[in-house]
Amino acid sequence: MSVTEITREFLRAHPLPKPEMGGDKQARGRVLVIAGSVEIPGAALLAGLGSLRAGAGILQIATCRSHAGHLGMAMPEALVIGCRETNAGGIDPASAERLIELSADCDAVLIGPGMTDPAAVAQLTRTILQNLDRPSVVLDALAFSTLHSDKMPQGRVGKIVVTPHSGEMAKFLDASRADVEKDPLNAARRAAAALPAVVAMKGADTHVVAENGEAWLSRNGCIGLATSGSGDTLAGILVGLLARGTEAGLATAWAVYMHGQAGRNLTKKYGAFGLLAREIPGEIPAIMRELTE
Q: How many whole angstroms separate alpha carbon 275 and alpha carbon 259?
């Protein structure tokens, strides 16, 4: 099966949904970001920024209770929900019922950035997935790597996207990281079929694979994006596009391309090294405008 390269021409031929100019923030989609831990509280902020810069209308963030107030002050655009914490500093799975209630009113949900405590993340993710019908879901970091295909709910084709790097994919497939890096497209296709889900296999080049094996490739990355928090912003951009009503495969293609282009733009300004993940989302609106004009 052939692989389609994600280029400017491809994206212009496959545009994002356009919100009605008279519509309100509800029409642009509601996002819930479930992210962060005691040790990594900023991941939720980075993902939230990405979602809003991608055009989502309403942002809610669920994170550890001890940091919720600080996050609310740092990101006044978001409604921030404080969740009970595990002894290991993660979000307690006992919060699942409340998060399922919040998710039911959302168009897209992101789970995983900055989350720690693998056992708690696995239980929380599994419980949420088994009790959601409507929203699209992005699984990032531990929310993906602790998942197993036999725990995935049925009937969610086209509704779930996962965003692993090679280490996370190796853990999911019970393979070596070297094997994944040797053939990332094959690894992505295996995961996409097993889950089933759309897979963004992150790397210097990022492969996007749909459940049926159809694949796209973005060569738009750069070394500057290899920095802490970069993946959190990508997951946020993706969930924002999904909330706007973009089909899962197309949203993933747009997200990985724009994330790469943001890195390239920042490299021109600052050089190849020293980019900050928090700078990435601010590049996205102008990139979207240029690609849609």
A: 13
